[in-house]
Design brief:
This protein has 12 helices and 13 strands. It is α/β, with parallel strands linked by helices and 339 residues long. The strands form 4 sheets. Strands 3-2-1-4-5-6-11 form a 7-stranded parallel beta sheet, with helices on both faces. A two-stranded parallel ribbon has the order 7-10. The protein has a two-stranded parallel ribbon with strand order 8-13. The mean pLDDT is 96. The structure holds UDP-4-deoxy-4-formamido-beta-L-arabinopyranose.
Length: 339
Amino acid sequence: MRVLVTGVTGYIGSHAAVELLDVGHDVVGVDDFSASSPSVRAAIERAAGRPIELHELDLRNRAAVNCLFDKGNFDAVIHFAGRKFVGESMDRPVRYYSRNVGASINLAAAAQRHRVEKIVFSSSCTVYGNPAQLPVNEATPVAPVSPYGRTKVAVEDLFSDLCATDPNMSVLSLRYFNPIGAHPSGLLGEVPQGTPNNLLPYVMQVAAGQRSTLSVFGGDYDTADGTCIRDYVHVVDIAKAHVRALDYVDHVRGFDAMNLGTGRGSSVLEIITACRIATRRDIPYQIVDRRAGDAAVIFADPTRANIDLGWRAEANLTQMCFDHWRFERAHLAPEAQAS
Ligand code: WQD
């Protein structure tokens, strides 16, 4: 298929582009480079051994989106573009609604107008907020506790209503748990902007000596070691799920949502231990106040994706942390190579 991939130079988008190219799809990428660099294109093409098309485009520009679809001749869309930090969204909600919801409205309208009827949407486990039952499955009530999570719910509702009124549309929303790690080639990975919001990039910068200590947001949660629990899943496993998702939307009409996780939860302190093993570096930390918007414990029941996509997360925590560290040293902290 000829697949439009929004946010193609971002963390998940770039890894998914490689997997799509590897199975023979053609990738037309768009990005506004607000959270990534055009240089990622070369890394994608080198990792896949095939070229992509790449256009700089802000999806909030409706005319530009329509012009893209006028010429695009797309068979499907995978929509990654958006802001993705829980903490940041608490401070900047308007930015999140503009970039995550406003852009998606333009994309949905253009896809429907041009009869691009297969859409995969990058959603998030943050739609579940603080779930009462664990593990979380797709019947778990949606109850986001952050603006970020609420924008993901808004876009899912947009696509669900679109499918309800247009029976030929097919949209699969993939609710990622916590993607970490990097492509084993060492060519692709997460490139944080400024101070990392997410745990793994911050831990890796401490391991590389770029930061002195990790702040652990809360040590008084109702968990075994008092720190939050998440379902960390390798970014390449997440990327491979999108290949399966394209096959799914090629055969199944209507709106659906599936969890992408391992089904296992790990605490912040367990992640620190796994990173100490993978990096063979000390990782000093201090426990500080909780971060607003954080869920205490969340991990997936991935049965739907296991069965209906034929997808299963394969990498373990050590592999995830080791792959993340390889990219960190090769690209972000070369000085950490020597020591
Ligand atoms: C993980 C844990 C923090 C930083 C992410 C993505 C979001 C979505 C879900 C895909 C939390 C703690 C963090 C730090 C810390 N995925 N932490 N010190 O908030 O679960 O959300 O996964 O869409 O995109 O943002 O991930 O990595 O920010 O936090 O103690 O310096 O690590 O409190 O418990 P989160 P995270």
